[in-house]
Amino acid sequence: MEQVAYTARVRTLATEHLVPLARDDGRVNRPLVSAMGELGLLRDLYGGRPDEPPRDAAAMQLCLLRETIAAVSPEAETALALQGLGSYPILQSGTAAAVDRWIPGVVKGDVVAAFALTEPGAGSDAAALSLRAEPDGDGWRLTGEKLWISNAPDADVYTVFARTSDAGARGVTAFAVAGDSPGLSGEHLDMLSPHPIGRLTFDGVRVDRDDVLGEVDAGFRVAMRTLDLFRPSVGAFAVGMAQAALDATVAHVTTREAYGGPLSAQQAVAHAIADMATDLEAARLLVHAAARAYDAGADRSTVTRSAAMAKLFATEAAGRIVDRCVQLHGARALQRGHLLEHLYRDVRAPRIYEGATEVQRTIIAREILRRADR
């Protein structure tokens, strides 16, 4: 009942306060982020009591939050999720100085955060990062490029993963980098679905030891711990969009007249509704199972496998559901501004970012086969 009450409250806040601020221009929406801070929704990204400083994150609450807001406004959900993804490594692994500098502003909505992992030559193969962190006195200078970075180039702080040695995944270090650092520049990229995403160029950007997140050469662990938390919630985002699509379609087929009765009287339509509802429920259950495993402190292999399964199934299922909903609506669903037209564009990206579908299958198989070898 507590979770039901929580999601009802979040839905009301999102409907009344966030939807009017949402816009579809592909840039960081600071008024929207600020409103989420004022409403306490950014604080809800983290676990613990609302009146205490954030210390960690609760996967189930994160999933409920993302699913609920996604069903109302994908733009608001994306803005919220990016705050969490960009800031969680700082909260999780940052020095006291870094946490004090950035986290309060993120929670208030005054500071926009971003997660900068992907590069032109290192997408799914994150261990192939080439952005260099060269020693410079008691710090480093970053030189290279990041690509497909959400909230770039407008974020105030970036969690940046850079190569500090040539030891593959064991030679990567995570840093908190201020968005106004000298030598850091970027450009916005236009995407199929308007989304704040861009390219970053690092020209000798200086970082200090206090900017290191975790240990030197151990940044890959920081990235994976963050992704283990956020991958199930990407599934929750997809579930929220699929729920919105299915709700709209049920309303449509029960009121649209065809062949002397409502569309829902057609067996093919009714069976499509049944299949979509089943897919949606299965996706939601996988997401919740992965969140529970994370919150219960399950072993790393279980958490990683469950997170990958949740993201894989939920994002693929949401793609199928939204596509079928468009089909049942007909041409009206492809008209610019229609809910389904909007969801049709938004639902595609989650199958790629934070590890593409193919990568999730590799992770799942690796963890299963690793256990079989014991």
TrEMBL record:
Record key words, sorted: FAD, Flavoprotein, Oxidoreductase
Every Acyl-CoA oxidase/dehydrogenase middle domain range: 114-205
Cofactor: FAD
InterPro entries from the UniProt entry: Acyl-CoA_DH_CS, Acyl-CoA_Oxase/DH_mid-dom, Acyl-CoA_Oxase/DH_mid-dom_sf, AcylCo_DH-like_C, AcylCo_DH/oxidase_C, AcylCoA_DH/ox_N, AcylCoA_DH/ox_N_sf, AcylCoA_DH/oxidase_NM_dom_sf
Leader peptide range in chain numbering: none
An annotated Gene Ontology molecular function: acyl-CoA dehydrogenase activity
Domain Acyl-CoA dehydrogenase/oxidase C-terminal: 218-369
Gene3D superfamilies referenced in this protein's UniProt entry, alphabetically: Acyl-CoA dehydrogenase/oxidase, N-terminal domain (1.10.540.10), Butyryl-CoA Dehydrogenase, subunit A, domain 2 (2.40.110.10), Butyryl-CoA Dehydrogenase, subunit A, domain 3 (1.20.140.10)
Record-given protein name: Acyl-CoA dehydrogenase
Species whose genome carries this gene: Pseudonocardia cypriaca
